[in-house]
Recover the amino acids of this structure.
């Protein structure tokens, strides 16, 4: 299986990739965000030193108890980082840069300045973001969710969550391809915690292998998720051990990318599990 994201062409199977989270905002649920581009770049540098394969930058928190920022404010937060990124990336071995945004106006403005992957949490309700990625040969992450981002959907219930995901990704893949985005540019994300209850999230972990029928890399956003707090009764900053357990569960079921805050621990977990389960190179 090939994943294409601009000049990056990654072939699976291989050791899963670790995506580090850099929040260019002041209301991250883990309190690790910053509005200072220099500090954000320093965080990215540290994560690359710790072994991150991808850096995911986001200018707006996905928290639903925070007001949305304007399109221009989001652009203004992202561009200073993007301007400096090539200099930082040149010091490391071909890291990928992911831009965590869902607004088409933002994507249209920032993609000409860089970014290999658009991490879209909107659920791709229309084809605009896929078309923009196609124009730049960028990767696109399609995440399952319901309704507009920044609006709580905790009331949503499913009879069979995996059947829902099957139907959702079938439709979205067809939609993305209809505007010229090759399937090999697409990554799938089942959307842990987004419009889902505790049992939905646990079912996704248990039955994740069902999504391999689409032949696309699967990203699991495992880091410090609410479902970990639900199971262990812990606040966000105390959920790193639970995060490693979710990485282990995801690797056992074939996930290819893990999005995390604590990069060093995640890289060590992934490399150790890969060494145990595989004779391939790390």
């Amino acid at each position: 299986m090939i994943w294409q994201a601009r000049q990056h062409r990654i072939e699976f199977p291989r050791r899963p990739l670790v995506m580090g989270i850099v929040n260019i905002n002041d209301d991250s649920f883990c309190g690790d965000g910053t509005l200072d581009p220099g500090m954000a770049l320093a965080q990215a540098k540290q994560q690359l030193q710790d072994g991150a394969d991808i850096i995911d930058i986001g200018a707006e928190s996905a928290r639903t108890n925070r007001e949305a920022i304007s399109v221009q404010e989001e652009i203004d937060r992202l561009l200073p980082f993007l301007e400096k990124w090539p200099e930082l990336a040149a010091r490391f071995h071909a890291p990928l840069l992911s831009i965590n945004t869902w607004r088409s106006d933002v994507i249209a403005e920032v993609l000409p300045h860089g970014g290999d992957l658009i991490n879209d949490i909107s659920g791709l309700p229309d084809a605009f973001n896929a078309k923009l990625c196609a124009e730049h040969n960028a990767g696109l992450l399609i995440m399952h969710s319901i309704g507009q981002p920044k609006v709580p959907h905790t009331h949503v219930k499913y009879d069979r969550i995996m059947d829902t995901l099957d139907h959702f990704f079938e439709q979205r893949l067809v939609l993305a391809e209809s505007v010229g985005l090759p399937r090999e540019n697409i990554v799938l994300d089942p959307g842990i915690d987004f419009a889902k209850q505790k049992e939905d999230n646990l079912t996704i972990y248990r039955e994740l292998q069902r999504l391999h029928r689409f032949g696309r890399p699967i990203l699991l956003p495992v880091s410090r998720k609410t479902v970990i707090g639900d199971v262990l009764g812990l606040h966000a900053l105390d959920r790193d051990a639970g995060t490693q357990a979710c990485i282990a569960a995801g690797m056992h079921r074939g996930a290819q990318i893990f999005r995390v805050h604590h990069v060093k621990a995640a890289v060590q977990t992934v490399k150790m599990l890969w060494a145990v389960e595989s004779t391939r190179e790390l």
